[in-house]
Amino acid sequence: MTRKTKEESQKTRDGILDAAERVFLEKGVGTTAMADLADAAGVSRGAVYGHYKNKIEVCLAMCDRAFGQIEVPDENARVPALDILLRAGMGFLRQCCEPGSVQRVLEILYLKCERSDENEPLLRRRELLEKQGQRFGLRQIRR
């Protein structure tokens, strides 16, 4: 059996994460199984397990990918802090309102992720995102 190239592996991971967004949004994190993700991605369960050890790891990777798309204004720009806050806030709201990964992942984290021991890493990721936003805002206010 031939090994996949880095590009092929990345394409598989992206397909799994795309499928995860759809499945977690439809079924919720608690009731989704790795087999559901594999079926939706059109790959074997072994392919999913080859990239991720469990559904929580899939969900964390999905968060990383989506949140990496959030545009953060340059805090060191020579513009008033209020302008930076306005740009950051409007940009975040735009990404939350426009259909896309950011919107779907936020909906999953806030509406489809039940409080449980299993989901604790996801709840911590959600809290981290909130705290990062708060710290960003406070830094601008204190400038």
UniProtKB/TrEMBL annotation:
Classification via PANTHER family: HTH-TYPE TRANSCRIPTIONAL REGULATOR ACRR, HTH-TYPE TRANSCRIPTIONAL REGULATOR RUTR
Source lineage: Bacteria, Pseudomonadati, Pseudomonadota, Gammaproteobacteria, Pseudomonadales
Record's keyword annotation contains Signal: no
The HTH tetR-type domain, residue ranges: 10-70
Gene that specifies this protein: mexZ
Gene3D superfamilies attached to this UniProt entry: Tetracycline Repressor, domain 2
Source organism of the structure: Pseudomonas aeruginosa
PROSITE patterns tied to this protein: HTH_TETR_2
Residue ranges of DNA binding: 33-52
Domain of life, source organism: Bacteria
Protein name, per record: MexZ
Alphabetical keyword list: DNA-binding, Transcription, Transcription regulation
Gene Ontology MF terms: DNA-binding transcription factor activity; transcription cis-regulatory region binding
